[in-house]
Write a structure and sequence with these properties.
alpha+beta; Barwin-like endoglucanases; Enzyme I, Chain A, domain 2; 6-stranded mixed beta sheet; 4-stranded antiparallel beta sheet; 24 helices; about 35% helix; about 15% strand; globular
Length: about 800
Amino acid sequence: MKNIQELEFGILSPEKVKDMAVKEITEAEVYDADGFPVEDGVMDPALGVIDPGMTCQTCGGEIRDCKGHFGMIELSRPVVHVLHAKKIRNLLRFTHVNENDNVTLLLKDEDKALRKSNRMKEDPETGEEVPEIDIEKPYTFYRDGEKLMPGDVKERLSRIPQDTAAKLGVEGGNPENLVITHLPVPPVTMRPSITLDTGERSEDDLTHKLVDVIRINKRLQNNIEIEAPEFIIDDLHELLQYHVATAFYNDMSSVPPARHRSGRALKSLIERVQGKEGRFRQNLIGKRVNFSARTVISPDPNIGINEVGIPYQVAKKLTIPVEVNEQNLEQAREWVRNGSEEHCGANYVFQPNGQRRKITDENQEELAEEMSAEAGWKVERHLQDGDTVLFNRQPSLHRLSILAHEIKVLPYRTFRINPNVCAPYNADFDGDEMNLHVPQTEEARAEAEELLKVQEHVKMPKTGGPIVGMLQDYVSGLYLLTQEGVELSREQAFNLLAEAGEHEAELPDGDIVTGRELVSLFVPDDIDITINENEPNEVRIEDGQLVDGQLDDDALSDYGGEIIQQLKIHYGSDKVAEFLNRVSRIGAIYLSRRGFSISIDDLEIPDDSTDEIHGLIDGAVDDANEVLDQYETDELEAITGKTLEETREIRVTQALNNIFTEVGDIISENVDSESSAYIMADSGARGSMQNVTTMAGLMGQESVRDQRVNRGYKERTTSHFKRGEVSPESKGFVANSIMEGFDPLDMFFEQMSQRKALMDKSLRTKTSGYMYRRVSNSLQDLTVDYDQTVRNAEGEIVQFRAGEDGVDPQKSDRGKVSTKLDT
C-alpha cells in the first residue's frame, strides 16, 4: 500500500462526472416485467451487482469482486448545489462584472468576515453602483429583487477567476461547477435493494430519489422540446431543483422533506454521513466487535473487586485461542472432547494448514485424537475462571469507564460485580447494562492485567483520592462493629470470620473480642493513620490497631477512604484489594447478623422537641412577615446594589432558610442515635442529616431557580391566594415534615421544585455530554512524552511540563507528592 502524503478536496466538474461514469442513466423504470433490472435504469447491471450469481457488465466481476461503478444523469437544465448555496451567494455578492466587462472584487478588507458591512457599494474600477444580491433559502437567488435562474447563476460564476474565488473561500475547482449540470449516479453497491418475505423488492431511499430526478428530468426535456409555455417549464425546473436538492439534503428548514409513500422522510446523502447514526461515527470511528457480550449487571458481595461474574451461556460462547504444545496437549484434548455445549469445552480447532473446524458431537473425538503438539494446532476454548477480560459501562466518560477483571463463571444470566467497584463505572443496579470484551492475544491480556486491573485504579486520575471504596451496607456494618463497647464472644467472632471465608485468621487472646480488634486483624501491623484529627469523629490507628473512633465514610468510602489511600501509598494495590475484599465482607456479614432496617419509629422525636420546632417555625414565619410589613410601609432599607423587591426576597429567604438549620440541630440532638436513619446519615453510608430533617422536622422553603416559587397564575402562585400576595405560604414555604404529611398546597409546591430539578438534571446531562465530546475530540491526540512535555500528533509542544507541575494525580496523595525520604 502506498503512503498517502495528502488529501485534496475539490468541486466535481461535469468532465470528471463524465469520465467516471460508465453510462448515462435515462430510464425511470427500475425493473422490467420479468423482474430484471432495466437497461439504462438506476439498477442497470453495468453499475455493479448485488445479487449472487450475477456478473457485472462493466468489469465482469461477481458480487464480492465488483465494488460498483458510477453512472450519470445529464440534467435538462442546470440546478444549484444546495450544499454550496452560501458559497454561491458570497461569490455573487462580493464580485461584480462592471461596464468594462471586468470582474472586480467587492471586499473592503480581505482579512475580515464576509458580511454585508465588509462589501463595497460601488465598483472599485468604474465607480458604478453594484446591485444587491439576496438569497431566499435554501437555493433561490435575487439580484435587486429580480429572480436569478440557475443558468444565469452558472454563467455569472463562470466569469469569476479561481484566484478571486479563493479569496472568497471557494477552492478546488471552477466556481461555475457549484451549479450542477451532470448528476453522478452512485453504484448499486452503495444503495442495494432488499427482497422482502413477500418476494417484493424494497429499494434504497437514494434509489427512490434518483428515480424522481430522472422522471422529472425527462418531463422537463420533453416540454422544452415541444416548446411548452414558459411557466410550465419553470415549474418543472423548480421541481427538478427540489428533487436534486433533497437527494443531497432532505432536512432543510424552509422546504418540506421528500417522503416515501408510507409517509416516512427519505434518507439523503448528508444524513447517511453525518450524526450519530452516520457512516463516520457508526461504521468507521466506532464499529461492532467480535468476542464481546452485553447484559444487565447485578451486585455480588462475595466476589472480589478484581473479579467479574459471567453467566455460563456467555462463557460457552466467547472463546480464547490457545496454542497446543506438549505441556497442554492433554488439557486441549479434554476441551475438545467436552465440545461446545459442556463447560469448559471448546468451539473451534485450527489445524496446522490454517483450516478452522467447528467442533460438533460427530467430530469431537476424531479431532481430539488427531490433535498433536506439533506447531500450528490451536484450540478456541471457553472462558474459564481467572481469564482476563475488559469490562466497560457506557457512556465512557473517563479512562476508568473500562477496566480489566478476572472471570468468575457463575449461574444465572447477569454479569456480577462487587458493589465497591460501582463508583469508577458510575454504575448502579436499576437495570444498567455493561459490555465485556475478551482480549485474544497474550500481549493484550498481559497489557490489560498490568495497566487496567481494578486494583491499579483505586485512585482517581482527577484528584488522586480513592474512587474505589466501601459503600452503604459495608460502611454501616463497620460503623456499628467499631462502636465503643461492641464486644463479641470468641465463638461469635470465629463464626463471623468463618462465614466471611477467613478460616486462618488468628484472634487475640481472651474470651471477648471487641469489634475494633476484629477489624484490626486486617490492617498491616506497622501503619499509623489519624483521620479527622481533633474532631468529634476522630479515628486513630496505631501500629495497625484501631485504638479510637468509629470507621465511617471518611475512613472507608470512595471519595473519602483515608485508610484505602494510605494502604495504596505505603503497601501498593495488592494490599488495597485484599483489605477491601476481606473487611467489606466482615462489615456486610456483621450487619446482616445484627439486623438493620428502618421504620417510622426511627424518625420519632419527643413531643417537647416537636413543640419547640413548631415554635421556631412560627417565629421564622413572623420574622418573614415583619420584613414584608416593612416593605409595604416603605421602612425596608435596600441592600447596596439591590432593588427593594430583591432586598425583600433576600431577607425573607434568609429568615426561612435559617430555620431549617436550627430545626436540623434539634433533630440531630433528639433522634435516637441507635436508629437506622441516624446511623446511615452519621456514618455517611447513605443520605445526610438534612434528609432526616425533612422527614422528621420540616420541609422548608421550596425553590425554583434558586428563588422562592413565583410562577403559576397571574400575579400569584396558585388560585388559593390573593393577587400580589407574597407571604411565605403563598411562595412555597412548607412548614410540615414528611412524617406529619403534606396538605395539597405543600405537595403542589414540592412537585414544582422537584420537577424543575429533574428537568435541569436531564438538560444538564445532555449539554455536558456534548461539551465533553467536543473537548475530548479536540484533545485526543495529546500525549505526555518521555521529557514530560505534552505534545500533539504533529509533535508540537502544548505544555512544557504535564499539568504544569509534572505530577500524575493518580500516583500522588490527593495531588501532593511527598518529598520525605526514609533513612
